[in-house]
Design a protein that fits this description.
Elements lengths: L1 E8 L3 H21 L1 E9 L16 E2 L2 H6 L5 E4 L6 H11 L4 E3 L2 H17 L4 E2 L10 H8 L5 E7 L2 H13 L3 H11 L7 H4 L2 H15 L9 E2 L7 H9 L2 E11 L16 E11 L11 E8 L3 E8 L3 H20 L25 E11 L4 H11 L4 E5 L8 E12 H12 L9 E5 L4
Parallel strand pairs: 1-2, 1-4, 2-3, 4-5, 5-6, 8-10, 10-16
Antiparallel strand pairs: 7-9, 7-11, 9-10, 11-12, 13-15, 13-16, 14-15
Helix pairs in contact: 1-11, 3-4, 4-9, 6-7
């Protein structure tokens, strides 16, 4: 049986999980592939560090370059995280003609184009299934399973930390800060949670999916990002009364309606690529994706609507995705076709991302206002002047002169128009706090 020698760079949670998974199911993988996966070396920062997964000391080194340069190693697995040394590892391996498997979404978001070009130039390949949505094989779906489809819609719940927080806020009727502290205690959120709760982790993943779905590279600076810090238990409550659940969604969709903007001369419909909290109708399947689970809802012009659901992070889920890439890479090496399926094919060079100001949506707006005659009329007048329609209003009973919440559901409007109107409304004397605006998705 042919053997593929692996050099793993990174021995943390994911690296340990991959080692453990190969020890557990290596024989099964070999029987299915006709190729044996053999771990030859592992580069780690500290060979003496205690590890939950016991790795034989003879495998360990602190010199990642010795792993990449070893002529006996056929396949390099980058599982160290970060973007600086990880980039050096990946580029060094690719330049030596060695395929690379990575789980590093930040690396791809920052340097994906460079790495894909290097793989092409040196006749090898880059595999990155584990970079998005953990154990859900969404990269393979977009690159292979749906290759005969134009992707018109993609919606992703791709950050388990945010999904857990929003789920618990709804179930416990608790505020963001309280649930975040609990998530940190349970290990679902980092001590410094900004990457997750401010939406940046989700943006890395959605940028990769948008690029694969639409055939031109979408960089991090092109993605509009909002996190969930401003979502309160009041918003969760009123969304529920209106028949919605709030989720942090990554949204990738072709846009036919653009707020005051003409379609480009080439006739290509631009795409919206965004990450933000969204009101999802309770009857939609994404509304029932709870806790740390992820889901990606994809619409193709041939297949229609499809859903991919599972654990989006964690040692075992990520290790499972890495094993899938190792199997693909091993088979490609066995058959002498190291670049059978290119990691990324830029096939829509005229594609463009629509600026957020031109995105048209419906909106949930929560205001804190003084309960007195004329308040609603003054707010409605500003919306009317901006040609923005109000579809419904919720105003809980209060005592005149007190501050009360005012909930408005807004008809379709461009982001620029609603932002300008809310700025004017926020300056009214009767409005006592900055307006809260959350977009509504109808999945048409």
């Amino acid at each position: 049986m042919q053997q593929v020698n692996l050099g793993i760079v990174g021995g943390g949670t994911v690296g340990g999980g991959v080692f453990q998974a190969i020890q557990r199911n290596g024989a099964l993988i070999s029987s299915r592939l006709g190729v044996k996966l053999h771990i030859a070396k592992m580069a780690v920062r500290d060979v003496h560090k205690p590890r939950p997964v016991k790795i034989p000391p003879a495998l360990l080194t602190t010199d990642w370059l010795s792993v990449v340069n070893d002529p006996q190693i056929n396949l390099v697995v980058e599982l160290m995280g970060g973007t600086t040394t990880a980039r050096e590892v990946a580029l060094s391996a690719l330049k030596r003609g060695k395929p690379v498997v990575t789980a590093n979404k930040a690396l791809l978001a920052a340097h994906g184009e460079e790495l894909f070009e290097a793989a092409q130039s040196y006749g090898t390949n880059l595999y990155y299934e584990a970079s998005v949505a953990g154990g859900i094989p969404i990269i393979k779906v977009l690159r292979e399973g749906l290759i005969g489809n134009r992707i018109t819609r993609l919606y992703g719940i791709v950050n388990g930390t945010c999904n857990y927080i929003l789920t618990q806020m709804k179930l416990e009727k608790a505020d963001f800060a309280e649930v975040l502290a609990e998530a940190q205690r349970l290990g679902y959120a980092e001590a410094e949670p900004s990457l997750d709760v401010d939406g940046h982790d989700a943006a890395h993943k959605i940028g990769i999916l948008a690029s694969l779905a639409h055939g031109f590279w979408v960089g991090p600076k092109q993605i509009y990002v909002e996190g969930i810090r401003h979502v309160s238990r009041l918003d969760i409550r009123f969304a529920g009364e209106l028949g919605y659940t709030i989720k942090l969604l990554g949204i990738v969709k072709k846009v036919e309606r653009m707020g005051g903007r003409k379609r480009p001369p080439n006739g290509c419909a631009p795409i919206q690529v965004s990450v933000y909290p969204t009101l999802v109708p309770n009857l939609h399947v994404l509304a029932s994706v709870n806790d740390v689970f992820n889901a990606i809802y994809v619409r193709g012009d041939v297949v229609g609507d499809t859903l991919y659901y599972g654990r989006g992070a964690g040692q075992d889920a990520t290790a499972s995705a890495v094993l899938g890439d190792l199997a693909d890479a091993a088979l490609d090496l066995k058959c002498g076709t190291k670049s059978r399926i290119r990691p990324f094919v830029p096939h829509e060079r005229e594609g463009a991302v629509l600026p957020i100001d031109d995105v048209v949506a419906r909106y949930y707006v929560r205001l804190s206002v003084i309960d007195k005659p004329g308040t609603l009329a003054s707010i409605a007048a500003i919306f009317g002047h901006s040609k923005i329609g109000i579809s419904s209003v919720i105003q809980p009973e209060g005592h005149e002169g007190e501050s009360v919440p005012l909930i408005l559901m807004i008809h379709d409007a461009s982001n620029a128009a609603i932002t300008k109107a809310l700025t004017r409304i926020g300056s009214l004397p009767v409005v006592k706090a900055p307006p809260v605006m959350i977009r509504v998705e109808n999945f048409e």
